[in-house]
Amino acid sequence: SQELEQSPQSLIVQEGKNLTINCTSSKTLYGLYWYKQKYGEGLIFLMMLQKGGEEKSHEKITAKLDEKKQQSSLHITASQPSHAGIYLCGAGLFAGGTSYGKLTFGQGTILTVHP
Amino acid sequence: KAGVTQTPRYLIKTRGQQVTLSCSPISGHRSVSWYQQTPGQGLQFLFEYFSETQRNKGNFPGRFSGRQFSNSRSEMNVSTLELGDSALYLCASSLGSRDTIYFGEGSWLTVV
Known about the structure:
Number of helices of chain A: 0
Oligomer: heterodimer
Largest sheet of chain A: 6 strands, mixed
Strand content of chain A: over 45%
Largest sheet of chain B: 7 strands, mixed
Number of helices of chain B: 0
Low-confidence stretches of chain B: none
Largest interface: A-B, 24 and 28 residues
Mean pLDDT of chain A: 89
Distance between the termini of chain B: 37 Å
Order of helices and strands of chain B: EEEEEEEEEEE
Number of strands of chain B: 11
Shape of chain B: globular
Radius of gyration of chain B: 13 Å
Order of helices and strands of chain A: EEEEEEEEEEE
Structural class of chain B: mainly beta
Helix content of chain A: under 10%
């Protein structure tokens, strides 16, 4: 069973629309990362959230961590074709709070943005 | 500042052979971790090294091994390759346990 569940698995939006991707954990989150990946390429770091209730923004992307619900969301405002790709959430789920570089990832959300 | 560098980017190997992949972390980063990405299993953690010591290991057979050198560069080795080892192998580095983890472009391994 997946320890990190992302929803939706895929998303097709028209350029200019807002969208949200969710990441839900079955265990307590000790830090959560959001990455973007173009198929076959490496992961591009977007944001890292470490505290419950934390919210970070970069350009048109906002990520929040609700530690009580063991959930994070990634919101894109006014989407553009450049936002297309695979979005991955990754978390350190190691008991005690130190994951030693081990991240457990969700299965990814494929985002398509039509011009 | 250079990012995480992985070599080679693409390679094709035959079943039964062995392969070595290389990773140069971001300058100053002492933690290096390796991941395997496949369409069926997604991104899975292989192992992590810090100051030449393996601190964490994923659930992979002993055919998968790695090491880290004193300059923090790391290599991973897969022996007796199987078709199922075909994957994108990603290396990541960070300063320490709770710091941002940055990934390289990956090494595409195809086993035929």
